[in-house]
Write a structure and sequence with these properties.
The structure holds 2 protein chains of 2 kinds. By secondary structure, chain A is α+β, with helices and mostly antiparallel strands. Chain A has 5 helices and 3 strands, in the order H-E-E-E-H-H-H-H. Chain A has a single domain, classed as Sufe protein. Chain: A, CATH 3.90.1010. In chain A, helix 4 crosses helix 5. In chain B, the strands form 3 sheets. A 7-stranded mixed sheet of chain B has the order 2-8-7-6-5-3-4, with helices on both faces. In chain B, helix 2 packs parallel to helix 8, helix 3 runs parallel beside helix 4 and helix 8 crosses helix 12. Chain B is globular. The chains are: A alpha+beta, B alpha/beta.
């Protein structure tokens, strides 16, 4: 199976790799997946007083498509409001990266990571947690 | 000069030796006869070529040329051995003993046998991939007709204690079948000394052509018979009908001859390269050799690079063809059943790469693989949240993972 040019690009030059200070109240961290499943994503957002995501960072253990999905997610998150970020759907990632059916779970994981990071941010700031994001158990 | 991509997946298949191709060519065109045509020169020439190939192969594994049944490959040989013995010896018993790390061609055939009412015992292996001989002996009952244990494992290269298994089988009057696809042509295999009664192998794993293999079936002490699984003209002593694949058989014969004459020099060179590759890669922090280090094939090395996922790693070394125990592409997302059977955790199994060298592998290729694999592992660890957590001293087993 050949990877799309966009997956190769994100894999070779991943955007926004790194770590934000998770102790800060305006930083939300999402850690999803499991080592035994072969992919773990950690996605972090930094949110300003206007609910705009000013920074996003990721680190991913996984295949090329998982790395590309999370790299793309951080690119999309920057500059969006938290509400706009919540609207990101995994199928948009699938389309953008031209992921084949066997790699759709990578995009689902990226969407989970976004929702999980937002949830963490909300809870830290005294807001109600979101209703359970898409469940993939 | 390096040529890309570099092929280090020789357990999947080997390139064909040009000397093999040369031997085969006339049998596609001028010498096209059917080896079963007994009454003209075309048939005689084909039969003579097949008989010569039998001798070349017999010399490699120390059997009688008449004890070889030609097939389409090791999968067919595995099927013929197991199903053929199950049918032929039905009056004696219905119990087969095998191991959890066998090739799917053996395991799935055993599953089929179970559906037909047979009993199968699947022996566990230890963390190094070896079966326990006491467990094997204890599993034998008065209904046991066959022990099916592979010679060398395709994923980790572990070589089972074949002679001891042969002795145990003999002692209990049970037939011993070995899938020796990865071993024949690579290490000395001797069906007499090893006490093997049936043995499967294939052309394309020993620098021969694809689509041809053989099943060794012992003719005396004891005389073994298998029920044909392919009915027809009664070729191959009635055990495998079908017009013989003469060019393929000629190729298998030539490949066997070269393996026999060149084995010592090839192996010395391959082991030196394999050991260098392995030593260099194992110098990396948190990298582990999979499988027993002593009892194994000379050309294989299976290494886990912890905190890096195998498929992602293969993408990072895309000009090197290797394979991984990770199966991120399969619908099940299950990593290698062989590594899991060895008791390896899923995350380490996902992090494994298998390197398979051949007689055509060069020192330069190995150098390139060493530097690029190291580079890719380092880069991916910088990207890995697990590596970061490990470096921070977090016990990953204590983390509650949101499994999906």
């Amino acid at each position: 199976m050949a990877y799309s040019d966009k997956v190769i690009d994100h894999y070779s030059n991943p955007r926004n790799v790194g770590t934000l200070d998770k102790s800060k109240t305006n930083v939300g961290t999402g850690l999803v997946g499991a080592p035994e499943c072969g992919d773990v994503m950690r996605l972090q957002i930094e949110v300003d007083e206007n609910q705009v995501i000013t920074d996003a960072k990721f680190k991913t253990f996984g295949c090329g498509s998982a790395i590309a999905s999370s790299s793309l997610a951080t690119e999309w998150l920057k500059g969006k409001t938290v509400d706009e970020a919540l609207a990101i759907d995994n199928m948009e990632i699938v389309e953008e990266l031209a992921l084949p059916p066997v790699k759709i779970h990578c995009s689902v994981l990226a969407e989970d990571a976004i929702k999980s990071a937002i949830n963490d941010y909300r809870v830290k700031n005294g807001l109600e947690p979101l209703v359970e994001a898409k469940s993939h158990h | 000069m390096l040529k890309f991509p570099i092929y280090l997946d020789n357990n999947a298949t080997t390139p064909m030796d040009p000397r093999v191709l040369e031997a085969m060519l006339p049998y596609f065109t001028n010498q096209f006869g059917n080896a079963a045509s007994r009454n003209h020169a075309f048939g005689w020439a084909a039969e003579e070529a097949v008989d010569y190939a039998r001798e070349q192969i017999a010399a490699l594994i120390n059997c009688n040329p008449k004890e070889l049944i030609f097939t389409s490959g090791a999968t067919e040989s595995d099927n013929l051995a197991i199903k053929g013995v199950f049918e032929m010896y039905a009056s004696k018993g219905n119990h087969i003993i095998t191991a959890t790390t066998e090739h799917k061609a053996v395991l799935d055939t055993c599953k089929h046998i179970e559906k037909l009412g047979g009993q199968v015992t699947y022996l566990q292996v230890n963390s190094e991939g070896l079966i326990n001989l006491e467990e094997l002996e204890a599993a034998i009952t008065d209904k046991t007709i066959l022990i099916a244990i592979m010679y060398g494992n395709n994923e980790v290269g572990v070589v089972q204690p074949i002679r001891e298994i042969g002795r145990i089988a003999k002692k209990h009057g049970v037939l011993f079948f070995s899938d020796a696809t990865q071993a024949v042509g690579k290490i000395p295999v001797d069906v007499e000394a090893d006490g093997i009664d049936l043995m499967a192998f294939s052309g394309h794993k020993m620098y021969g052509p694809k689509g041809v293999g053989a099943l060794y079936v012992r003719r005396k002490n004891p005389r073994v018979k298998v029920t044909a699984q392919m009915d027809g003209g009664g070729h191959e002593r009635g055990m495998r009908s079908g017009t013989l694949n003469v060019p393929g058989i000629v190729g298998l014969g030539k490949a066997a001859e070269i393996c026999r004459t060149d084995m010592a020099s090839d192996t010395a060179r391959i082991i030196a390269m394999r050991d260098r590759l392995e030593t260099e890669l194992l110098q990396m922090e948190e990298s582990y050799l999979n499988g027993n280090k002593e009892s194994r094939l000379p050309h294989v090395s299976n290494i886990s690079f912890k905190y890096v996922e195998g498929e992602g790693l293969m993408m990072g070394v895309k000009d090197i063809a290797v394979s991984s125990g990770s199966a991120c592409t399969s619908a099940s997302l299950e990593p290698s059943y062989v590594l899991k059977a060895m008791g390896m955790s899923d995350d380490l199994a996902h992090s494994s790469l298998r390197f398979g060298l051949s007689r055509f592998t060069t020192d330069e290729e190995v150098d390139y693989a060493i530097s690029h694999v190291k580079e890719a592992v380092t880069k991916l660890r910088e990207l890995s949240p697990l590596w970061e957590m490990f470096k921070e001293g977090i016990d990953l087993d204590s983390v509650e993972w949101a499994e999906h």
